[in-house]
Amino acid sequence: MDRQRDEETPLLIAEPTHHDAAAIRNTADAAVRWLAAVWNVIKVTLLSSWLNVLLAFVPLGLVAGRQNWGPTSVFTLNFIAIIPLAAILSFATEEVAQSLGDTLGGLLNATFGNAVELIVTIVALRANELEIVQTSLLGSMLSNMLLVLGMCFLLGGIFNMMDEHGVGKEQTFSPGTAQTTCSIMILTSAAIIIPTTLSGVINHGGTTDDSNASILSLSRAMSVILLLLYGLYLVFALRTHKHLFEPQVAPEQDNLALPSNTDPTPHMHLTGLSSSVVLLLVTLLISFCAHYMVSSIDDVAQTYGISKKFIGLILIPIVGNAAEHSTACVVAVKDKMDLAMSVAIGSTIQIGLLATPVLVLVAWPMGRELTLQFGSFETVAFTISAVAVYSVVQDGKSNYLEGAMLLGLYVFIALAFWASPVENA
């Protein structure tokens, strides 16, 4: 038998047997199944949101940052690239949460609900862009409170303006949920007001160094307290009083990650493992895009005379909140205001009680003196916004006029920061 071998004889399998043939078929079948599974994950992920049409900007943004195409091109391309990546991140987080159950799923959503903002601010923190860190955090909260919630009230009120008798009506949501979350927003504004006010008092009777040291110590201590309160909030919302936070139509909650297709078929769901892989890959891509975007902010601000506060407060939050904005507006139009409230105000709570104190504490070992002192005007803007939202939602009803008023307040704040001097740019 060995004498019949020549140069065309396979090296690995000299004489195939029935067992070898079966092994080859099994290997081929496994490879085909693996490729089919990968293709299904890619297809489901790409079809998860209409925002994914912007994914073409991801490679362009990475190449622009790598090849130094210029600050304007780098900032613009990566700015747009993060928008669809944020939508995919939201989709993957929802899919992972579904496989973990209500409690762990809720905790995961609470942790990754603002992952884009966290990634961008951590990148800015490493670059010692403390002003960008603070304004992007504050801008994310203002965007969710005024822009996202205002659009929900406006669009929901317009599309659900009349009842079956042709009489104007208001949309309703749980007032208990609104009051609890808005009270937490007032607490967040207090955490910003106290360091800012104390800084002004100390500066009148002491030195700047004394003021900075005192505010830094106060901010770190308050951050620990905020994290403890956030933990209590999770227990309150996910365990002891979770009935207060349940939407009126709970089955629709699974569709939050799919704003463009609110009635998905079963094949649109991913497994826990594939969702985790997508989550990891997208997080890596966002970190690279965020690095290039943040590194170009200084040059863009100087070139176009735009305040860095405006970039951090208005432009960057648009990126992180694009997916949440789309989701909240869709469910508001479908008259599911409890879901819209949970997306808009819930995200604000996560930024105020989780992301902000975590960054203050993470900056400590990095040697970055990040504090809760956000500046006088920023503090006033946030406090007014929190009070305005509280007064609008406390009755558990909404209409398009209230939405227009919230949007008007957001435009006021945006114009004020646009008109602010560019001395720090």
TrEMBL record:
<feature type="transmembrane region" description="Helical">
    <location>
        <begin position="137"/>
        <end position="158"/>
    </location>
</feature>
<dbReference type="GO" id="GO:0012505">
    <property type="term" value="C:endomembrane system"/>
</dbReference>
<keyword id="KW-1133">Transmembrane helix</keyword>
<keyword id="KW-0109">Calcium transport</keyword>
<feature type="domain" description="Sodium/calcium exchanger membrane region">
    <location>
        <begin position="276"/>
        <end position="418"/>
    </location>
</feature>
<protein>
    <recommendedName>
        <fullName>Vacuolar calcium ion transporter</fullName>
    </recommendedName>
</protein>
<comment type="function">
    <text>Has a role in promoting intracellular calcium ion sequestration via the exchange of calcium ions for hydrogen ions across the vacuolar membrane. Involved also in manganese ion homeostasis via its uptake into the vacuole.</text>
</comment>
<keyword id="KW-0813">Transport</keyword>
<keyword id="KW-0926">Vacuole</keyword>
<feature type="transmembrane region" description="Helical">
    <location>
        <begin position="370"/>
        <end position="393"/>
    </location>
</feature>
<comment type="similarity">
    <text>Belongs to the Ca(2+):cation antiporter (CaCA) (TC 2.A.19) family.</text>
</comment>
<keyword id="KW-0812">Transmembrane</keyword>
<feature type="domain" description="Sodium/calcium exchanger membrane region">
    <location>
        <begin position="73"/>
        <end position="238"/>
    </location>
</feature>
<feature type="transmembrane region" description="Helical">
    <location>
        <begin position="104"/>
        <end position="125"/>
    </location>
</feature>
<feature type="transmembrane region" description="Helical">
    <location>
        <begin position="74"/>
        <end position="92"/>
    </location>
</feature>
<feature type="transmembrane region" description="Helical">
    <location>
        <begin position="400"/>
        <end position="419"/>
    </location>
</feature>
<dbReference type="InterPro" id="IPR044880">
    <property type="entry name" value="NCX_ion-bd_dom_sf"/>
</dbReference>
<dbReference type="InterPro" id="IPR004798">
    <property type="entry name" value="CAX-like"/>
</dbReference>
<dbReference type="Pfam" id="PF01699">
    <property type="entry name" value="Na_Ca_ex"/>
</dbReference>
<dbReference type="InterPro" id="IPR004713">
    <property type="entry name" value="CaH_exchang"/>
</dbReference>
<feature type="transmembrane region" description="Helical">
    <location>
        <begin position="178"/>
        <end position="202"/>
    </location>
</feature>
<feature type="transmembrane region" description="Helical">
    <location>
        <begin position="273"/>
        <end position="294"/>
    </location>
</feature>
<feature type="transmembrane region" description="Helical">
    <location>
        <begin position="214"/>
        <end position="236"/>
    </location>
</feature>
<dbReference type="InterPro" id="IPR004837">
    <property type="entry name" value="NaCa_Exmemb"/>
</dbReference>
<feature type="transmembrane region" description="Helical">
    <location>
        <begin position="41"/>
        <end position="62"/>
    </location>
</feature>
<keyword id="KW-0106">Calcium</keyword>
<dbReference type="GO" id="GO:0015369">
    <property type="term" value="F:calcium:proton antiporter activity"/>
</dbReference>
<keyword id="KW-0472">Membrane</keyword>
<dbReference type="GO" id="GO:0006874">
    <property type="term" value="P:intracellular calcium ion homeostasis"/>
</dbReference>
<keyword id="KW-0406">Ion transport</keyword>
<feature type="transmembrane region" description="Helical">
    <location>
        <begin position="343"/>
        <end position="364"/>
    </location>
</feature>
<keyword id="KW-0050">Antiport</keyword>
<dbReference type="GO" id="GO:0000329">
    <property type="term" value="C:fungal-type vacuole membrane"/>
</dbReference>
